[in-house]
Design a protein that fits this description.
This protein is mainly α. It has eleven helices and no strands. It has one domain. Helices cover about 70% and strands about 0% of the residues. The two termini are about 20 Å apart. The relative contact order is 0.17.
Length: about 200
């Protein structure tokens, strides 16, 4: 899953949310520099990724992209799924998406000094382009994919992946809708153990 889903799945726990957001930039023993709850958020992030990457429904989504995008298929599907979460946000959360994203930006801004340098830069860019809110639009996904493509060392072709999103829109949306409640259930039980 991508950033919107990771934040959403953290519930109302700020430290858990921060850990879940910065996890990919925290390597090895650097995890020990953070509070226990942020460490739990980092662990939660990895559990979510592992559950997602190995799930049969997600594999079906990735298979549709594999011939063209190879190992970038996982990243693309993560972002596609964030699109469907944002688009159908009111089915999953009582707070409007715009209010939720603004609240998240404000919360993270207050704690930005504890973020790894890489994530401080990334977060600033995210807010400037309002990624979390704009995930709901195809144009928003196109912008994110273009940025991802520019940051890869290889010609990933990700900047063209919205073509597949549009072509197989119903299939991807159905797979997301089938998978996401299972992920939410898994995450809730994982949080109960961690906390």
């Amino acid at each position: 899953m991508n950033y919107l889903a990771h934040i959403y799945l953290s519930g109302n726990n700020t430290e858990l949310m921060i850990g879940n957001f910065i996890a990919d930039a925290v390597k090895g023993k650097a995890i020990e520099n953070y509070s226990i709850e942020i460490q739990n958020g980092i662990k939660l992030h990895h559990s979510i990724d592992s559950y997602t990457d190995t799930h049969e429904i997600v594999k079906k989504s990735k298979k549709r992209l594999w011939a063209k995008y190879r190992h970038f298929s996982s990243v693309i599907v993560d972002i596609f799924y964030d699109h469907f979460l944002a688009k159908n946000w009111n089915s999953y959360h009582s707070m409007e998406l715009e209010m939720f994203t603004n609240s998240t930006y404000n919360t993270f801004s207050e704690k930005l000094d504890i973020f790894p340098d890489k994530m401080q830069f990334f977060f600033t860019h995210m807010v400037e382009n309002n990624w979390l809110y704009n995930y709901q639009f195809i144009e928003g996904i196109e912008t994110v994919m273009g940025g991802m493509a520019r940051r890869t060392n290889f010609d990933s072709g990700m900047e063209h992946s919205t073509e597949e999103l549009i072509k197989y829109y119903e299939e991807f949306e159905h797979e997301f809708e089938s998978f996401f409640p299972l992920l939410k259930q898994f995450t809730d039980s994982k949080i109960a153990v961690l906390l």
